[in-house]
Amino acid sequence: MSENLSLKAFVVLMKASKSLQEVIKHDISNHGMRTSDFEILEALYHKGRLTVKEVSDAVLINTGSITYVIDKLEKKGLLERSHCKDDRRVVYIHITDEGKKLMDEVFPQHQQVIESLFEGISDEDKETLISVLKQVGQKAVQ
In total, how many domains does the chain have? Predict the structure, then answer.
């Protein structure tokens, strides 16, 4: 009986994903944050001002849950909301100076954790991994 490589690849991918999520969750919690808090701040830190929908799409958190997280981050002074002048239904979110200062400290450390996960893996293998995962992701949304 031949080995089902698609099934094996799926299982390995899911196990690796779970392991990586646990490492990242632990790293982020070491900075006193939840993963959802970090994801929102990281999106704003790198992309600048975004609408609530754009943030939700970027971090893969549904819009119902994201409002709660944004409320908490706003109360902590890490981000602010502002209404669009042309369409009051649109709300923009942007990182505050305090939020940027936090991410200036946390993000380089977080990036180092990610770098250590890929230590010893060649750039060529990383490029292959990126390409293959994009293909799998595109198939999943067809």
Answer: 1
> What's the pTM?
0.85
Q: How far is CA 53 from CA 43, 71, 93, in A?
A: 12, 15, 10
> Has residue 131 been placed in a domain?
no
Residue 102 lies in a domain: yes
For residue 1, is pLDDT > 70? Answer: no
Tokens of 71: 């409320």
Q: Which domain holds residue 95?
A: 12-108
CATH number, domain containing residue 81:
1.10.10.10
Instruction: Inform me whether the pLDDT recorded for 2 exceeds 70.
Output: no
What is the identity of the amino acid at 60?
Answer: L
